[in-house]
Amino acid sequence: MPVKNYKKQIILVIIILILLIAIGLGYMTYMLNKIEANTYNSINTVVQNDTKNLKTEIINQKAILQSITSYISSVNKVEEEKIFDMYEKSDITSQFIRMAIMTQDGKTITNDGFKVDYSDEVKDFFRDNEIKIFDNKISRIDGEKINIYSQAVNVKDEKVAILLIISTESYKNIFVNNIFESKGFSYIVDNTGNIIVSANIDRGTGTLINNIDNMLVGNSKEKFEKNQNVIESNIENGIAGERILQTSYGKTYMVYEPIGVNGWALVYFIPSSAISGEINQALLLTFIVSIVVILIALIVCIYIVISNNKKQIKLYEYAYIDPVTKKGNIYYLRKYGQEELEKDKKNLYLAILDVNKFKMINKAYGYKVGDEILFGIGVKLREILGDNSIICRYSNDYFSMIFRYENDINALINTIISNIEKLKINDEVYDLSVNLGLYKVQEDDNNISVIMDKAIIAHSLSKGNVFDKFYIYDEKVEKKIEFESKIEQNMETALRKKEFKIYYQPKFNTKEESLYGAEALVRWYHDGEIITPDKFIPLFEKNRFILKLDLYIFEQVCKDLKMWKEKYGKNVVVSINVSRQHFMDEHFLERYLRITTKYGINPNNIDLEITESAAIEEGIDILAIMKRMKEYGFLISIDDFGTGYSSLNMLQDMPIDILKIDKSFVDQIGKSKRNIIDYIINIAKELKLKTIAEGVETKEQRDYLLERKCDIIQGYYYEKPIKEEEFEKYLKD
To answer: Which tens digit of pLDDT belongs to each residue from 74-120?
Structure first.
């Protein structure tokens, strides 16, 4: 080969190599810019989601305070014991560490018994009647860093301030960021740049600017000083912003977003190494290797794309995937649920499912097992509904499912419930209790949030219902909601107008067929019609109006007992149902006792009926309550015995007088060879208890119970529930 040609080839190779390197460098520059833009977008998405969650949480907490002050305004008096009792029995105690009531002299009392003097700051609390959120304070009780939600309220001729105190540290749970390999850190700051709370223990004090200044290296401090005023001004005026800083952690992304509450802002610092370390290394490797050989450079470029995709996947998972179940979160549900809705509405369903008393599971087994159960629920739902369904855990132990199904939907839902309630994980079977609400999408449905609301309404109807584990939203549900709303609007007026009437169903001794007593039942006479208890009692149990109604019924019964004794000289035993809601109030028995004393009634003439399910409910010390009933002289009976899951050991410890046999067992007389009634009566005799059989309607049933030596019978065989004046005929005879 001639030397000249050789030299030309070398030059050509060099030119081509330079050209290829230039193309490679241009491509890498393009990739760097694109990655920079994608990184900012991804970080902004994370910060905006966390800011939205934080703002929502603060707004919800303000709403809780508003509901308390609205209640106080409505009753126009401050009943410290009642307000504190309501607070301690509600779910909000998981959000706040305590509640307090402050008078205008600054004297403050808390629900847990502390007395604090805020006279030096009292003007701040009573400046107006708006809700205030105070920036960081130090608790005068335990020295903990706290924030106070406060609202003044006019009560009669004075003013009080209601305070809800939250641990400042609790805000961390909303915006702590672990997705960036724990290399990132974040703050909440006020509008002057002071740090309210930090997600990192060692960065929780001082001002934002001082913390930034301590991180900066080299001449980046001088550059930062030029932008410092802009950052401070933006935060003060609630303007979002972003910066790239050179810190001791390397290139660091700073993003700040106003929360929109109290002038606070959320600030994130994400080191570049936490997000794109792999990408930067790959780019550097591409630059070095591309000089040697273009082929390797191309391979590295491919690796860059893959690494970038991994980073995007990480950020996507943080924004849309629940870390415990690895299924979607609430944002995933809204995004992809809306897409599914716009795609096709045919045979499309949305379901809401939750596990009852999941806190008790965490308490009994620990949070690790609790998380395993939540993960297992997600796996089982996916297994039943298939890969094309959308499974999300959108809050605590609440799951949402969007799926298509063409066959018997009731059979499918029963399959879901039965599988979740007997959840098997690693050869361990967990007995759970779940409720489910379902909505079938209609052609005119276009908004996923509206559809979710309807599924949630259906779920709320099933909540706490042992027998109806699920509800399907339909016209009946809408009518039921309208009916319940109407009931709630009229219930207070009905009580004042005495529209609730007492009916008595007589009870008879089996041997002599003589009158033993009666059970007091309630009917509601409204606008010329009778509303039966099954229509309003479950609702009153939920909204706790049952407490007022039970007290009214108890007093009416005592009035009747007094009248019967004066007119006929007769003492009969009247049984009265006691709602489980009363067991949350330690003073209800004292109120009952005062009423019996008022009318001169011997408590021994009143039989307090407790359902078996209430007797075994978790969180209630039923034995202590029963002992107090006996001390006051009341009779005690267990209603619906045999339908629950109480143990014989527990029954032996209960100071009860009567076992009441449920109607469902009485109905089986003559239909099966063996009847649980024999078992119940034998238990009662062993424990020296009386037995009452309810719902007796035929002579065959009556004769069977007489033969088995059941003590007392109640039912249509003898008499239906009747008005007080009709019941008097039995007393006359």
So the answer is: 888 888 888 888 787 776 766 788 999 999 999 999 998 899 999 99
* pLDDT score of 581 more than 60: yes
Contact yes or no for 193/208 (Cβ under 8 A): yes
Percent of the chain with pLDDT over 90: 29
Q: Are the CB atoms for 78 and 209 separated by under 8 Å?
A: no
Task: Tell me, yes or no, whether 458 and 494 share the same domain.
Answer: no
- Structure-token pair, residue 139: 């608790």
Residue 35 and residue 277: Cα distance in Å, rounded?
12
354 token code pair: 């939750």
Rounded to the nearest integer, the mean pLDDT of the chain is 83
Q: Which domain holds residue 575?
A: 484-732
Residues 48 and 171 grouped into a single domain: yes
Q: What is the CATH number of the domain that holds 645?
A: 3.20.20.450
Q: How crowded is the C-beta side of 556, counted as CA atoms within 13 Å?
A: 20
Q: What's the rounded Cα separation, in Å, for the pair 249 and 581?
A: 57
Last residue of a domain, one of 444, 473, 502: 473
Which of 213-217, 521-525, 620-624, 689-693 bottoms out in mean pLDDT, i.e. has the lowest? Answer: 213-217
Tokens of 70: 């609205």
Strand (E) or helix (H) holding 300: helix 294-320
**Domain final residue pick, 290, 319, 348:** 319
Percentage of the chain exceeding pLDDT 70: 85
Q: Using pLDDT thresholds of 50, 70 and 90, give the confidence band for residue 283.
A: low
Pair (414, 563) in one structural domain: no
Confidence at residue 265, expressed as pLDDT on a 0 to 100 scale: 87
CA atoms of 73 and 151, how far apart (whole Å): 12
Judge whether residue 2 has pLDDT over 50.
Answer: no
In a domain, 148, yes or no: yes
Sign of the Cα pseudo-torsion (65, 66, 69, 71, in order): negative
**Any residues with CB less than 8 A from the CB of 151 and at least 6 apart, and which?**
65, 66, 69, 129, 130, 131, 132, 161, 162
Token readout for 316 is: 């996507």
What CATH number is attached to the domain comprising 378?
3.30.70.270
Residue 9 has pLDDT above 60, yes or no: no
The better pLDDT of the pair 428, 205 is held by 428
Q: Count up the domains in the chain and report the number.
A: 3
Q: Nearest CA to 49 among 255, 272, 309, 262? A: 255
The CA distance from 396 to 598, in Å, is: 48
Is residue 547, in this structure, part of any structural domain at all? yes
Q: Are residues 298 and 342 in the same domain?
A: no
Kindly report the backbone phi and psi dihedral angles of residue 425, in degrees, each rounded to the nearest multiple of 5, phi listed first.
-135, 120
Whether residue 324 is contained in a domain is answered as no
Give 313's contacts (C-beta < 8 A, 6+ positions apart): none
Please calculate the CA angle 318-59-234 and round it to the nearest 5 degrees. 70
467 confidence band (pLDDT: 50, 70, 90): low
Phi, psi of 76, deg, nearest 5: 55, 35
237-251, pLDDT tens digit by residue?
Answer: 888 888 888 887 778
Say if 479 falls within a structural domain. no
Q: How many residues does the chain have?
A: 733
Same domain? 266 vs 355: no
* Contact indicator for 474, 494 with CB cutoff of 8 Å: no
